[in-house]
Write a structure and sequence with these properties.
Layout (H helix, E strand, L loop, with lengths): L10 E5 L27 H13 L4 E5 L9 H8 L1 H5 L4 E6 L4 H10 L4 E5 L5 H8 L4 H13 L3 E7 L9 H11 L2 E5 L11 H4 L3 H11 L2 E3 L9 E5 L5 E5 L12 E4 L4 E3 L7 E3 L1 H6 L4 H11 L23 H4 L2
Parallel strand pairs: 1-2, 1-10, 2-3, 3-4, 4-5, 5-6, 6-9
Antiparallel strand pairs: 7-8, 8-9, 10-11, 11-12
Helix pairs in contact: 1-2, 4-6
The structure holds S-adenosylmethionine (SAM) and iron/sulfur cluster (SF4).
Length: about 325
């Protein structure tokens, strides 16, 4: 699949549910309205859709959400999709999780062929973690991380950089990830969906974070070998990798290789644009995949050049109305 700008689409991210057991302040409001369960694609339908994408050249599949591990029986979907790893059609099957249920899921994920996972953790301090996630239990996530390590999963920690919230912890996080053998990625807040707060006060440009880290750590550039939007550095003192995802200060769209599918079968060709394609209709229209494949190809032909995110005081409304949990981060 090649889009109008010559980018090969080889990466599908699937939000298997928009629901979550946490309410991170930058992601959701406390009182969220979720998609009614009756509108969700079944796990079998999600499998069929993902498999169609794999047939069209998708090599990397990431399950996300909302919180993917709160979807009932999601591990059976992971196990089923694992068959594409065995045939070599898929090179990587992975997920992004808040880690609250990893303690029980880690072993099955590893057995299904998952090698690496991203775990979001915005603070190492239990009370602060609670404040950021509103409902989270830090100890539970730590149990999950221990289980992931024990199962042999490689872990990347995602940290959203939040002004006045966790900005004084970043040195400690570099040290901790170094000791644990985790990669660490800092993310800028993106203006997606209404939250019960002011995003302009949360936004912390990663140029500042990187400059501050440079005062304590020696960060060496390394070639970006993940094909994603993160720019990676090696921390000489810990030996660990530290990445920066800067959608706001650096336009990462030129090399975009991904599209995103929601739990209702809507395909978003760009995280930062409203245009989307319905795949549920063609999926349900027939048992053969012909209509579905035609709809996927037609959607890829409409993939836009990039996003138009802006966070400043003149733009108080989100750039896109849907929350990150709908399309998956
Ligand atoms: N629940 C899982 C988790 O938290 O990892 C997966 C879904 S979550 C939407 C995926 C990632 O998006 C997380 O790392 C989260 O911190 C990030 N995220 C959510 N809302 C965001 C926003 N408005 N700007 C930047 N990152 C955001
Ligand atoms: Fe849930 Fe992930 Fe959003 Fe936090 S960032 S509310 S864990 S979906």
């Amino acid at each position: 699949m090649i889009d109008p700008f010559g980018r090969t689409i080889s990466y599908l991210r699937v939000s298997v549910t928009d629901r979550c057991d946490l309410r991170c302040v930058y992601c959701m409001s406390e009182d969220m309205t979720f998609v009614p369960k009756a509108q969700l694609l079944t796990l079998e339908e999600l499998d069929r859709l993902c498999s169609a994408f794999v047939g069209l050249g998708v090599k990397k599949l990431r399950l996300t959400g909302g919180e993917p591990l709160v979807r009932k029986n999601v591990l059976s979907l992971v196990e089923s999709l694992g068959r594409h790893l065995k045939t070599g059609a898929l090179s990587e099957l992975t997920l992004t999780t808040n880690g609250t249920q990893l303690d029980t899921a880690a072993e099955r994920l590893a057995a299904a062929g998952v090698k690496r996972i991203n775990v979001s953790l915005d603070s190492l301090d239990p009370s602060r973690f609670k404040a950021v996630t509103r409902w989270g239990d830090h100890a539970k996530v730590m149990d999950g991380l221990r289980a992931a390590k024990a199962a042999g999963l490689k872990v990347k920690i995602n940290v959203v950089a939040l002004r006045d919230v966790n900005e004084d912890e970043f040195d400690e996080m570099v040290a901790w990830c170094g000791r644990e053998g985790f990669d660490l990625v800092f993310i800028e807040t993106m203006p997606m969906g209404d939250i019960d707060g002011d995003r302009t006060s949360q936004y912390l440009p990663l140029s500042i974070v990187r400059a501050r880290l440079g005062q304590r750590w020696t960060l060496e550039s390394i070639p970006d070998n993940t094909g994603g939007p993160a720019r990676y550095m090696r921390c000489v003192e810990t030996g660990g990798r530290v990445g920066f995802i800067t959608p706001m200060t650096h336009n990462f769209c030129e090399s975009c290789n991904r599209v995103r599918l929601t739990c209702t079968g809507t395909l978003y060709m760009c995280l930062g644009q409203e245009d989307a394609a319905d795949l549920r209709g063609p999926l349900r229209a027939s048992e053969s995949d012909e209509k579905l494949i035609a709809a996927i190809r037609e959607a890829i032909a409409r993939k836009p050049k990039g996003h138009d995110f802006i966070i400043d005081r003149r733009h108080s409304r989100p750039a896109v109305g849907r929350h990150m949990s709908v399309t998956g981060g």
